[in-house]
Amino acid sequence: QVQLGESGGGVMQAGGSLRLSCTASGRALYSYTMGWFRRAPGKAREFVAAYGRWGGTEYAYSVKGRFTITRDNPTLYLQMNNLKPEDTAIYYCAAGSDGTRSPATYEYWGPGTQVTVSS
């Protein structure tokens, strides 16, 4: 069992930066891929970034070059730079034993944290 909790969301002007944190508790965290997803109003949950259990990282095309995912167990981070209004969403942290870009491959989810970017 893994418990996840996000923090660091807030309101920011376009061009600004925020850092999200996700604190995990549970056994064998090193055996999970950790990911960030987001859900904008009226849209489906979408992949943002993932940090694999082997150390590799992946990013959605829309955030590549602006967002950076890092991991220092038991905490996962998402540094978000050059924020845009279209980044406005609820951001979720997730853990999956076989995590990929699909949210269906993650077993555990945090409650989410709101990020709002104003133009």
Task: Give an account of the 3D structure.
This protein has 119 residues and is an all-beta fold. It has strands at 2-7, 10-13, 18-26, 33-39, 46-51, 57-59, 67-72, 75-80, 89-96, 108-109, 113-118. Strand 4 and strand 5 (46-51) form a beta hairpin. It is globular and about 40 Å long. The N and C termini lie far apart (40 Å). The model has no long low-confidence stretch (mean pLDDT 95).
Which helices and strands occur, and which strands form pairs?
Blueprint: E1 2-7, E2 10-13, E3 18-26, E4 33-39, E5 46-51, E6 57-59, E7 67-72, E8 75-80, E9 89-96, E10 108-109, E11 113-118
Parallel strand pairs: 2-11
Antiparallel strand pairs: 1-3, 3-8, 4-5, 4-9, 5-6, 7-8, 9-10, 9-11
Short structural description:
The protein has 119 residues and is an all-beta fold.
Total number of helices? 0
User: Low-confidence parts lasting 5 or more residues at pLDDT below 50?
Assistant: none
Shape: globular
For the sheet with most strands, the description reads:
7 strands, mixed
Class by alpha and beta content: mainly beta
How far is it from the N-terminal to the C-terminal residue, by CA?
40 Å
* Estimated radius of gyration: 13 Å
Approximate strand percentage: over 45%
Mean of all residue-level pLDDT scores? 95
Order of helices and strands: EEEEEEEEEEE
Q: How many beta-strand elements? A: 11
- Helicity range of the residues? under 10%
